[in-house]
Amino acid sequence: MCRASCFDSWTRLLALAHAGEDDPSSEWLSRRGFLAAVATPVLAAACARPLPPPPGPTRDLLEATLSFDLHSHPGLFASTASDTLAGHRRSAEVGLVKVISLTATSDAPVIARGASGGLRATRQPQPGELYASMWRQMDLLRTWSAGAGMPLVLRAEELGVPASAPVRGILAVEGCDFLEGRVDRVQEAFDGGIRSLQLVHYRVNELGDIQTEAPVHGRLTPFGRAAVREMNRLGIVVDVAHATLDVVRGVAETTTQPIILSHSNIQDGSGWARFITVEHARLIAGTGGVIGAMPYIRGYRGDDIPGYVDHISRLVDAVGVEHVGVGTDMDGIGPGAIFTSYDRWPSLAQGLLDRGYGREEVAKMLGGNCRRVFEKVGGAVRAARPRRETALPVSSRLRS
Prior knowledge:
Elements: H1 6-17, H2 31-47, H3 59-63, E1 68-69, H4 85-95, E2 99-105, E3 111-113, E4 119-121, H5 129-147, E5 168-174, H6 184-191, E6 194-198, H7 222-234, E7 237-239, H8 245-254, E8 260-264, H9 278-286, E9 290-293, H10 305-319, E10 324-326, H11 345-354, H12 359-384, H13 395-399
Parallel strand pairs: 1-2, 2-5, 5-6, 6-7, 8-9, 9-10
Antiparallel strand pairs: 3-4
């Protein structure tokens, strides 16, 4: 199937998020109009009867596992068999996936494809632009998750609910550009229900450098260190995807909690800048953290479970089973994606078993390791002091 690019997905999300914000009579739907337009089909899809559960020997394993996708943008555009969040929730039910990240993209308004075809920042943002855009995206993700019957995880202990519980989402942000140099906005993110923050994306920002551009800072900046400390204090999981080796080294030196690299792989000879070295991977593992294997093969189209298992196995060789997870970047990869629906999750489990991994090892990689990190980060904070747990609505903030 021909897939739209990840840039197209962000463009669509931004179009929806900004619909009618300046001119209610414009051709864009107003936000209220958009919500009214999508509410009925989304709710209808959410209530549709799920497909039958997967047959075969992997079912017991998956029913006993908290399968966890560390990084995804599900339902943002029509690139897979399911182009609504409710559709992805149904495919997750079929695949017995229990937790899915719901990720906004902080730098989306200012990135576009360059001459080489890669994504990069094309202009400087206006003051407050990326902050407002991120929160509008969060409004939509929260609305979509409610309409899809997908509760949000706000506390670490909520990861331990029974296997019969519905598929749940964790709110995340790709790129801390919305902080705009303000550490107090980390607290605001937490109060808004966000539980994972990726420091950088496709724009060199106030926290550090990125893998796809020449270095500017050469390190994790002092502001980046302050932001990491605040995330540790609050119980937000720090994500170092897209960050350079020097930035990751700085995070590893600063953090008091495990970190994640939500979506990448060990270099495989393709030369893709987003893949990492063994040294890079071991910095994450050294914090007790997890790397989410990314289902991407350059120039390939279509599902390739053996190819995905190859990526996972290279990570295992580098850092061990205890530090490997899954980060599908669902609907965000575009061409090159080799895992395109959650109903293929049992095939991934079987592929790992066929490769010689034990059942306990497979359970760790498909979710147990991710659960350990999120419970460690969130649980340590709650033991230290009480905190606010309610996800606050954000629309009122944007109107003030």
